[in-house]
Design goal:
about 40% helix, globular
Length: about 130
C-alpha cells in the first residue's frame, strides 16, 4: 500500500519478542516500510526525532515502558492522536484490559494472531 507521495506506508512496530518481530517482518515488509523498535522507550525516542508513522503495531506487555503507557502517551499528545493503533498481546483478558483503557485502541489481537486477519485490519485502518 502506498502513501500519497508514492512511497510505502510506514508502520512502527514495537515489540520485545524476536519471534513476533520476525513474523511481522516476513508478512508485512513487502507492502510496508517497517520501523522496528524493541521497547516503548525506543519508540518514543524515534517519534521525538520527528518521525510520523502511518500506523503503529504495539505489544501490550513489554518491560520498562509497556504498550499501554506508550499508546496513552501518544493519544494524549496532539500530534499522534489520530495515528491508528493495533495492540497485540498474549494476555487472556485482553478485551477486558482494552475496555478499561482511558484512550482509544483501533484494533487489538491476541497472540498468536492470524496474519491474514492482521493484514486485513491494517488495510482497513490505512484506507
Amino acid at each position: 500500500m502506498e502513501s500519497k507521495d508514492g512511497n510505502k506506508k510506514i508502520i512502527l512496530v514495537v515489540d520485545d519478542e524476536p519471534s513476533i518481530l520476525k513474523l511481522l517482518t516476513f508478512i508485512l515488509s513487502s507492502e510496508y516500510d517497517l520501523i522496528i523498535k524493541r521497547s516503548g522507550i525506543e519508540a518514543i525516542a524515534w517519534l521525538e526525532e520527528g518521525n510520523d508513522p502511518d500506523l503503529i503495531i504495539s505489544d501490550l506487555m513489554m518491560p520498562y515502558f509497556d504498550g499501554s503507557t506508550l499508546i496513552k502517551n501518544l493519544k494524549i499528545s496532539g500530534f499522534y492522536r489520530n495515528t491508528p493503533v493495533i495492540l497485540l498481546s498474549g494476555a487472556e483478558d485482553l478485551e477486558e484490559k482494552v475496555s478499561e483503557m482511558s484512550f482509544k485502541i483501533d484494533r487489538f489481537m491476541e497472540k498468536p494472531f492470524n496474519p491474514a486477519i492482521l493484514k486485513s485490519h491494517i488495510s482497513e485502518l490505512l484506507a
